[in-house]
């Protein structure tokens, strides 16, 4: 990928009551933050009036998996399912930095890092994991929807002091990020994180590489417990 900035735009859903928590939701490969803003605004945000939602938008790049032209991507993808040796180090580093800047901005505005949750779908979930398990900030929670943890990123996560609750949601019929990758990621987390009791893994029978009402409902309920 080229030297284009990792993040080209941000949209938000503001808190409608006193702003006491923030969720940063990161979209997937070749997706738009507008899609997830609409889903959240309809299904989750009304029950969390104290939460500000932030939706960063990845810049468009020429990627290996999408040779037709530039598409929104946080890092290069060569194949789906992703190979174990795939790791676009330069772009990943840049994208981690962009999300860290969003976290730091919230902290500078007075938000306790333990009231900040990272969430994402697919490539956005992978990026959320890489940020959360390397950041020096103790976060309020981490949610992965149809994500994975790139094996080559794991060495920098082994000494993670992150203790936040983790929710991992995944469809059993996902062929782009198969559930085997989710199970592998969960096994890694159980070997790595200190508070294993805060890790929750939910499978959705028949769900492909997308979200559904049940998953969004579970995400909303989980958020109610970690940043109520």
UniProtKB/TrEMBL annotation:
GO terms for molecular function: carboxylic ester hydrolase activity; palmitoyl-(protein) hydrolase activity. It catalyses: S-hexadecanoyl-L-cysteinyl-[protein] + H2O = L-cysteinyl-[protein] + hexadecanoate + H(+). The keyword Hydrolase applies. Its EC number is 3.1.2.22. Gene3D superfamilies: alpha/beta hydrolase. GO terms for cellular component: cytoplasm. It holds the Pfam family Abhydrolase_2. Keywords: Fatty acid metabolism, Hydrolase, Lipid metabolism, Serine esterase. The keyword Transferase does not apply. InterPro entries: AB_hydrolase_fold (IPR029058), LYPA1-2/EST-like (IPR050565), PLipase/COase/thioEstase (IPR003140). One of its GO terms (biological process) is fatty acid metabolic process. Residues 15-227 form the Phospholipase/carboxylesterase/thioesterase domain. Belongs to the AB hydrolase superfamily. AB hydrolase 2 family. Hydrolyzes fatty acids from S-acylated cysteine residues in proteins with a strong preference for palmitoylated G-alpha proteins over other acyl substrates. Mediates the deacylation of G-alpha proteins such as GPA1 in vivo, but has weak or no activity toward palmitoylated Ras proteins. Has weak lysophospholipase activity in vitro; however such activity may not exist in vivo. This is Acyl-protein thioesterase 1. It comes from Lyophyllum shimeji. The lineage of its organism: Eukaryota, Fungi, Dikarya, Basidiomycota, Agaricomycotina.
């Amino acid at each position: 990928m080229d030297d284009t900035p990792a993040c080209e735009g941000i949209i938000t859903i503001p808190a409608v009551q006193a702003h006491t928590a923030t969720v940063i939701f990161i979209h997937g490969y070749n997706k738009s933050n507008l899609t997830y803003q609409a889903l959240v605004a309809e299904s989750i945000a009304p029950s969390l009036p104290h939460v500000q939602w932030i939706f960063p938008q990845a810049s468009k790049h020429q990627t290996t998996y999408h040779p037709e032209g530039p598409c929104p991507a946080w890092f290069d993808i060569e194949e789906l399912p992703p190979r174990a040796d795939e790791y676009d180090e330069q772009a990943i580093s840049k994208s981690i930095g962009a999300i860290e800047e969003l976290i730091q901005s919230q902290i500078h505005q007075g938000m306790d890092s333990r009231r900040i949750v990272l969430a994402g779908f697919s490539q956005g979930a992978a990026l959320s994991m890489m940020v959360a398990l390397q950041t020096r900030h103790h976060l309020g929670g981490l949610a992965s929807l149809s994500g994975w943890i790139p094996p080559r990123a794991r060495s920098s996560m082994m000494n993670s002091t992150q203790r936040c609750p983790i929710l991992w949601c995944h469809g059993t019929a996902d062929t782009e990020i198969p559930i085997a990758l989710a199970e592998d990621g969960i096994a890694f987390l159980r070997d790595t994180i200190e508070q294993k009791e805060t890790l929750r893994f939910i499978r959705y029978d028949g769900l492909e590489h997308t979200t559904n009402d049940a998953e969004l409902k579970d995400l909303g309920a989980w958020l109610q417990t970690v940043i109520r």
